[in-house]
Amino acid sequence: MNAPGEPRSLRTLLDGRATLSAVTAYLDGLTPAARLHEARELPPLGLDILWEISAAAPPLTVSHVLPPSRAAHHALRWVGRSTRPPFRQLELPCFQDEHGRVWGRVVPAYDLMATVVGPMYFAVTAHPEWPGEVCLSFDRVPDTAPPGWPEIRQHGRTSALMLQGVPDRLRGAAAGVLVGRAEATGAHSILVVVED
Fold it and tell me: What is the distance between the alpha carbons of residues 136 and 152, in angstroms, rounded to a whole number?
């Protein structure tokens, strides 16, 4: 139970325009399952505010998304939500290949969506235009993937259309919490994902 004056949820913190340090302290005090629950409960305005205040976050690197010590082809799952309708709930599992390059894919909550648009692979790199941020590059796909993952292929017309507006800039919001925003198409879309 919360003590008087303590925040009751991430949403109430963001509604009150809390600082990033207050949000980070709150999220760091939660279990991973509670962090995910809080992230999925955020309305679009809360996601916008989280993106705005995350500008004050320490620089994010690819190693925050996937530690380099992780074995090749051993995926780390990020789970969360987006303001983009086809991806309201999603997963972003990431892995590194045998050369240390980091890759991932978008896994929508609905199997039918994955069947229609394909595996939606992306490269994870330092953002070329936004220092201290990480970029999800949907124009590149890996050569190999972890066992059991979908076949790798270039994005077709359907998946390219679906990927428009998928956030491609990432910032850190707290340990194990990333917030992203679409930049490539000018579409307004925000996501928040939590390390699973």
Answer: 17
Tens-digit pLDDT profile for residues 120-177 = 889 999 998 889 999 998 888 899 999 999 888 876 665 555 555 455 899 999 999 9
Using CA atoms, how far apart are residues 93 and 77, in angstroms rounded to an integer? 4
- The token pair that represents 11 in the structure block: 């949403």
SS3 content of the chain, % helix, strand, coil (to 5): 30, 25, 45
Question: Could you tell me how far CA 102 lies from the centroid of its own chain?
Answer: 14
What is the residue type of 87?
Answer: F
Note the pTM of the prediction, 2 decimals: 0.88
Domains of the chain in sequence order: 57-195 (2.40.128)
Listed residue (29, 104, 22, 91) closest to 62, CA to CA = 104
User: Residue 174 in contact with residue 56, Cβ under 8 Å?
Assistant: no
